[in-house]
Design a protein that fits this description.
Elements: H1 3-20, H2 30-35, E1 37-43, E2 47-52, H3 67-76
Antiparallel strand pairs: 1-2
Length: 77
């Protein structure tokens, strides 16, 4: 199982646990799919790393990753 698959599975399990208490979490969040997130490294409880594909839809006038989308990418991780 890849790191990405492992993290996604853990998120699903976390959502299932919260659901038992009546709390509905949408894990993994759909925003990660929009941003093209792939988890590449994890040290549970300490560190999580992800890669994001560059998508021109999220670029500024200079053709660089627009700051708001960069913040959203950081928020995803």
């Amino acid at each position: 199982m890849s790191v990405h698959e492992s993290v996604m599975k853990s998120m699903k399990q976390m959502a299932d646990e919260f659901a038992k208490s009546g709390v509905a979490l949408q894990l993994p969040p759909p925003s990660g799919e929009t941003l093209g997130r792939t988890y590449v490294d994890v040290d549970p409880g300490k560190m999580l790393a992800a890669e994001f594909r560059f998508d021109r839809r999220f670029s500024n006038p200079l053709g660089m990753f627009q700051g708001g989308f960069l913040c959203a990418a950081l928020d995803e991780v």
